[in-house]
Amino acid sequence: MKSDATLHPSSFRLHPAVSVRALALTYLAVLLIIPLSVIFVDGLRGGLGGLVRAVTQPVAMHALWLSLWTAAVMAAINAVMGTLTAYVLVRYEFPGKPLLNALVDLPFAIPTLVTGVMLVVLYGPQRALGAWLDQTLGLKIIFAPPGIILALLFITFPFVTRAVQPVLQDLDREQEEAAATIGAGSWTIFRRVVLPAIALPLTTGALLSFARAIGEFGAIVVVAGNIPLRSQTAAVYVFGEIESENQRAASAMSIVMLAIAFALVVLVDYLQRKKDEG
Amino acid sequence: MKDEVIKSEGTGSPGSAFSLQPSALSLHPSLLKWLLIGAVALYVGVLILAPLGALVAGAFADGPGAIVRALAEPDVLSAFWRTLLISVVVVVVHAVCGTAVAWVLVRQNFHGRRLLNGLIDLPFAVSPVVAGYMLILLFGRRGLLAPLTDAIGVKVAFALPGMILATLFVTMPFIVRELMPILHAFGVEQEQAAATIGASGWQTFWLVTFPALRWGFIYGLTLTFARALGEFGAVIVISGGIQGRTETATLYIFRALDDRQYVGSYSAALVLGLISLLLVLGTDLLRRKDQ
Hints:
The structure holds 2 protein chains of 2 kinds. Chain A folds into 2 domains: 1-43; 48-277, MetI-like (MetI-like fold). Chain A is built from 13 helices and no strands. Chain A has helices at residues 2-7, 9-43, 47-55, 58-91, 97-109, 112-123, 128-137, 145-170, 174-181, 186-215, 218-224, 234-243, 247-277. In chain A, helix 4 (58-91) crosses helix 12, helix 6 (112-123) runs parallel beside helix 11 (218-224) and helix 8 crosses helix 10. The model of chain A is unreliable at 1-13 (pLDDT under 50). By secondary structure, chain B is mainly α. Chain B is built from 14 helices and no strands. Chain B has helices spanning 2-12, 29-59, 63-71, 74-107, 113-120, 122-125, 128-139, 146-151, 160-186, 189-196, 201-230, 233-239, 249-258, 262-290. In chain B, helix 7 (128-139) crosses helix 9 (160-186). The chains are: A mainly alpha, B mainly alpha.
């Protein structure tokens, strides 16, 4: 047996390799492919027309639109503040820097439902700050879009920062110094030299945070509640339709959300591949 | 400082063609530095630290005794145990199958490998509610596989197996994505060397490949465990959240909030958040120390 293995190591190694592949593929099929296909089969049972009719109901449309625009606002703010955070972490030395660096990862470690509870404790209508904001500024946070955007910003805070940070770290400082010697101001240097270099991680980070935001449920259901035509997002809408056993509507919206998620994942993959090849 | 000097020179020689217009907003570098740091500090303070502080204050509103009393309720304890059980099962399954997937995707070539590689990330982008709903379509009352599970007498939906499947789905990418780059970087030379001196496939894996993967493995599983502890959307859909039977820690937090049992809800949220946080930050710290 042993001598056999020494003579033909590849033939001996074939068996475990094949069984490991079988295990891996079965696992992926059971966990990913079968569930994903079932949803498409169910949602397209009434044809594409049925799907479109289900999603264009006013309540569904409102939910989808709310998800899309709050996610877009979040991605824009995240792009700016995430880049700024990465810039500050890479370029400056200051007391508390290790703490800030650790805080960036904190949202990854905290359950999103807990994030939602935190925001309700801080801004809830019965709480001091929430009541003050409502009465003096007329600003409603909980059960309203600002709460959704705050929750999404909290959850996706690491996305842009952690994508931009390593690229900024590796960036050659010579170009920036050269630009400075010919009299370029800090903003010009940032816009002309730094920004083009971090454009790709910035874009992919923002796109992935957008994808993550479209599907978010735990934080939003706590912060925004489940009020149709007002604060109900797409994910909360699907939840409501499952609860009321309205399978057609739940499947239709699920397919739309899956399509958005899939398109974004493919887009990010394409952008990264293009960069690697170019 | 250097910047200032150059700028004043630049304005003194308007003929210089290369001189870019210094922005009117140009600030003294150290002023700019503290302005940017201040902006980030304010952002992190408002966005992350203030809600965190509010939760701590909310949980302690009626004193530490109230927290202990709220968490010692039998329903709450059983919810936390259920969460722990699900998370442990999920970690064990992913430790085996996730490692296999990473290994197969990096080391083997077959049709559809690229497609599978792309699909691995999908659970991160798919809404947890949709993930739970997929399982309802498969195992729910009128589910596609319901006749099969009924025949063998296993209850999947509205029971523990379904909750485990849902958590497996949402946590799938962590271990795979943690291990794949390490396997790539590690290369095959040492594995081939082990094979030429007669090591079997398993021996090669345990004695050569696995030691290189160790920290990625531990960190990936920690992230999996933390995410499993906090999973909510997928689990509430598949479990139905039956109090005392299929309620997990997150489901309890949600129900208690709805029932206005604020201290219970806030305390459980605080404990769950702290456990996840300590797990992830602690492992990260250990890993950095080791490397």
